[in-house]
Write a structure and sequence with these properties.
Blueprint: H1 2-25, H2 35-44, E1 57-59, H3 75-85, H4 91-103, H5 110-136, H6 139-150, H7 153-159, H8 166-187, E2 189-191, E3 203-205, H9 209-223, H10 229-246, H11 254-283, H12 298-311, H13 321-351, H14 353-378, H15 395-416, H16 422-442, H17 453-460, E4 468-474, H18 477-495, H19 499-502, H20 507-519, E5 522-527, H21 533-540, E6 549-556, E7 567-570, E8 574-586, E9 588-597
Parallel strand pairs: 4-5, 4-6
Antiparallel strand pairs: 1-5, 2-3, 6-9, 7-8, 8-9
């Protein structure tokens, strides 16, 4: 029986990691690519926006050809593309390029392969968070932390994004692992001298150079992966300072520790100097100005919402109001119960001498990151708390705190209520709701993609037998990426066999007509500079498909309903009239025009 228990205990961590991997790779290609993921694809495939068909008409059926791997591109070339056409550090895109090159040819499963590396980083974070709690508390606490991250809907959502969130999250977890080891080295003294003299052997703080070196290397790499990693780096430094101040009477060789901190921090900062000028230019770009200014206490409750989503995510997006209210109420009740359980365990961890320092380290890191979030929101006027995915910066520490607190509650409850085993039921319920939430996430019922490309495609595909043209007005490259996400979803939908439409008489004729419509589909990106009139002017000069009818959809970021003219004309031969019943806005507006081929000009002109 003892050997059996030992065996099950040893298999717990591999089992948790396997479960986490299954959840992250399950339905990896189900959700549509959205704007940010398209940006990832462009740079990770070795391309840039100059390789895209801008200001020309392009066949919709060939949109997949734009997302093919471009061999022979160096990391320096990718870094140059990112520096001039994006607002991110280059290391993630270089890693993605190497990964996709290893998996080439990508074929029809290119979306799944694009998301596979972030999913793999997400699995790595599960193993890393085990190490954090193993060092800070116990092996059992480490396994619980790994299990919590494995079934966290927030972590699964990030892992299925073709973006640089799980890679920095893994590095932040590893940095926390180093921070925990540094904290233990500072306060766990080693004896030296001759104990045989009959006197108490003096003690000194251990300073292991290689741990500080690895910690610095991890932070240096992280800064080249995501700019928000700087918030974690600052919080780590501030946490070490707090620990030094809190335990100043217990630390003997303070000078060596301060020297190690200064050297490590300086080396990280120096390593980032080559990219510093690019960073300053990115801060001033228009692509970073989309975040709204905070209003009153909105950053506070938005942060609370993000905390809830870390542990439970039920279908509340785009649901009927009664369903959204019921699920939302359940999420709040569950979050209150979880908060109560965490608070009980956290209080015990804080009061216990053996765990006080570890919990102080994790809390300090979390609080310092949150203070920076609120500083950016209130003093810089950019409310980053509005975006749940940005809270990945401190999610590892929150996960570690939750696991340690629940584990502590388990120990106390087992002592008081050994027969009832209430606390283990609490952990089981916590993990069960997390697992259910993950099912909703991977099924596209929770954490749905911004701008909902699949819904936009369904709205635009209202008449499958009529040729379609998608026109996107763009001011910057993000508008182009957004338009491409719509084009990809639309092409996938239009290329499917509409079986429901074909189960009628004249099957062959109907199928032939649909194929003809699909082959006539096209899209175009038209620059809105110097103003919106440039779009209508270029549109009037464009050649329309040689069809009697055409559904023209115009997407215009920043446009209002009244900005769309009542009539448009394509190449003087196709007249288009606005359809007021088909105006939509999902993040950005898009309007339908019904076009007909005319043999001679009408009496109107574009307005």
């Amino acid at each position: 029986m003892k050997n059996r228990r030992l065996s099950l205990h040893d298999l717990a961590l591999p089992g948790v990691i396997i479960l986490g991997a299954i959840l992250r790779f399950w339905h990896l290609d189900l959700k549509p690519l959205w704007m940010d993921e398209v940006i990832t694809a462009i740079f990770s495939l070795g391309k840039n926006y100059n390789d895209l068909p801008l200001d020309v008409v392009f066949p919709l059926e060939r949109v997949q050809e734009l997302f093919t791997f471009q061999p022979g591109i160096s990391c320096s070339q990718i870094a140059k593309n990112v520096a001039t056409q994006s607002t991110h550090p280059p290391l993630f895109f270089c890693s993605m390029y190497s990964w996709l090159g290893w998996m080439a040819p990508l074929g029809s499963q290119w979306v799944e392969k694009l998301r596979s590396l972030p999913a793999l980083f997400g699995v790595g974070a599960i193993a890393a968070i085990f190490g954090v709690n193993y060092i800070a508390f116990s092996r059992e606490s480490g396994i619980i932390a790994a299990a919590i991250m494995a079934v966290s809907p927030f972590a699964v959502y990030l892992s299925q994004e073709a973006r640089h969130y799980t890679m920095p999250m893994l590095l932040i977890t590893l940095a926390l692992l180093g921070l925990m080891q540094i904290q233990r080295d500072i306060f766990e003294r080693e004896s030296f001298g001759l104990a045989s003299l009959g006197k108490a052997a003096p003690t000194r703080t251990r300073i292991r150079f290689w741990i500080w070196l690895l910690w610095a290397i991890i932070n240096s790499i992280g800064l080249y992966v995501h700019y928000f990693f700087a918030l974690a780096f600052i919080a780590e430094i501030a946490t070490i300072v707090v620990l030094m101040y809190w335990g100043k009477t217990q630390i003997f060789n303070k000078r060596q520790i301060w020297l190690a901190l200064i050297v490590s921090t300086s080396s990280v900062v120096i390593s980032f100097i080559p990219w510093l000028v690019v960073t300053l230019s990115h801060i001033q770009r228009s692509e970073t100005s989309w975040l709204p200014a905070p209003t009153h206490i909105t950053p506070l409750y938005q942060t609370l919402i993000s905390w809830i989503l870390m542990v439970i995510a039920l279908p509340v997006e785009n649901q009927l109001l009664p369903i959204a209210v019921i699920y939302g109420f359940l999420m709040v009740i569950f979050a209150i119960w979880v908060g109560r359980e965490i608070f009980k365990g956290l209080k015990l961890l804080w009061l216990e001498r053996t765990t006080h320092l570890a919990i102080l380290t994790l809390l300090s890191f979390t609080i310092f990151v949150l203070l920076q979030f609120f500083f950016i929101a209130y003093f810089l006027g950019k409310d980053i708390t509005i975006v749940p995915r940005y809270h990945f910066v401190y999610y590892p520490s929150v996960c570690a705190i939750i696991a340690a607190s629940l584990n502590k509650s388990t120990e106390i409850a087992n002592t008081k209520f050994r027969r009832l085993d209430l606390s283990q039921k609490s952990i089981f319920i916590f993990l069960l709701f997390g697992l259910i939430s993950c099912v909703f996430v991977v099924s596209n019922l929770a954490f749905q993609k911004p701008f909902q490309p699949e819904q936009v495609a369904q709205n635009m595909n209202l008449e499958p037998a009529v040729p379609l043209m998608l026109v996107v007005g763009y001011s910057h490259y993000q508008d182009v990426a957004l338009g491409l996400s719509f084009a990809i979803a639309l092409e996938q939908l239009r290329s499917q066999n509409p079986s429901g439409e074909l189960k009628i008489n004249n099957l062959a004729d109907k199928s032939k007509g649909l194929n003809a419509a699909i082959n006539s589909d096209s899209f175009a990106f038209l620059q809105k500079s110097p103003d919106l009139s440039n779009v209508w002017k270029k549109l009037s000069q464009m050649a329309a498909p040689a069809t009697s009818k055409l559904n023209l959809w115009v997407v215009g970021s920043g446009m209002r309903k009244r900005d769309y003219p009542q009539h448009l004309e394509l190449s003087g031969q196709t007249s288009c009239t606005i359809d007021p019943e088909h105006y939509y806005r999902i993040g950005v507006p898009y309007q339908l025009y019904r076009c007909e081929n005319i043999s001679k000009p009408k009496s109107f002109s574009p307005k």
